[in-house]
Write a structure and sequence with these properties.
The protein is mainly beta. 6% of the residues lie in helices and 25% in strands. Keywords: Lyase, Metal-binding, Zinc.
Length: 294
């Protein structure tokens, strides 16, 4: 495969922004019509594009620079398995979607002032185990990262408005580490062959995503952005300190998916992660006391 899913230096201030097109192999961050069309974000979204943005994600978390905040409460997580709807190949990653018409599934507490409803979750991963997570910790990259995306229904009438609004989204992030097989993840892995190509979709029965969370509740939190278009700076990130273990074969199964739709040349879905962005003076807070380093 010759496709390089890395953003060439100097090109990533633009994103492709045409709906319903295959993923752009150049800009990484979004769809484009043919891989050669590159357009700037619409003016109305200019303030949320990377260009000029000061709160972009992902970032590297430096443990020694994070600040313990004793006022941070434990995160309260309550997901209704029955609100799980479907799993689909977006052409960039696979995503599991939830019915967010009611309050039944969501998170509150932690750094959040409101209850945020679960909308979807998805993963980012690498072509090899040495890379794949979007966030890093002290420069360490994990093979994959889970993002559970929630929106602030107390402040916004719809997800689409929350995406672009102040404190509109809360994304709960979990690192995946190669180790023991993860039984709950396997339910998703088993469905992946049904959604191998872009735009393929499969129904999901009840599924509780809290089974994908680590036992330890310690987290870091900071203000950032979506890592895919529109890169809106509306996200309160909550990043679990403890990774969850998954089998190497389970991450390998992610890599069998394709960016490409049925009937087109096969492009394996790997390295669907945005490069780290500058911290720009932001403070990363931790819910836990840092370890003393010898
Ligand atoms: Zn993501």
């Amino acid at each position: 495969m010759s496709t390089v899913w890395a953003v060439p230096s100097g090109l990533d201030s633009q994103v492709c922004w045409l709906a319903g097109c295959p993923p752009c192999p150049v800009c990484l961050t979004g769809p484009c019509s043919c891989g050669s069309v590159r357009v700037s974000l619409p003016v109305s979204l200019g303030q949320v594009s990377k260009s000029g943005g000061t709160r972009q994600s992902p970032i590297n978390i430096q443990r020694r620079d994070s600040v313990y905040d004793p006022h941070l409460q434990p995160l309260r997580v309550s997901y209704d398995p029955a609100s799980c709807r479907c799993i689909w190949n977006t052409g960039y990653f696979f995503q599991v979607e939830f019915d967010d018409a009611a309050e039944q599934s969501g998170i509150s507490g932690g750094p959040l002032e409101n209850h945020y409803r679960l909308r979807q979750f998805h993963f980012h991963w690498g072509a090899v185990d040495e890379r794949g997570s979007e966030h890093t910790v002290d420069g360490h990259t994990y093979p994959a990262e889970l993002h559970l995306v929630h929106w602030n229904a107390a402040k916004y009438p719809a997800y689409e408005e929350a995406v672009l609004g102040e404190k509109g989204l809360a994304v709960l992030a979990v690192f995946l580490q190669v180790g023991a097989r993860h039984e709950a993840l396997q339910r998703l892995v088993d469905v992946l062959p049904e959604i191998k190509h872009k735009d393929m979709r499969a129904a999901m029965g009840p599924f509780n995503p809290s089974c994908l969370l680590p036992a330890c509740q310690d987290y870091w939190t900071y203000s950032g952005s979506l890592t895919t278009p529109p890169l809106a700076e509306s996200v309160t990130w909550i990043i679990q300190k403890q990774p969850v273990q998954v089998a190497a074969s389970q991450v390998s199964a992610f890599r069998e998916l394709l960016f490409s739709p049925l009937g087109e040349e096969e492009e394996f879905m790997v390295d669907n992660c945005r490069p780290r962005q500058p911290l720009m003076g932001r403070r990363v807070r931790s819910s836990f006391r840092p370890l003393k380093w010898g």
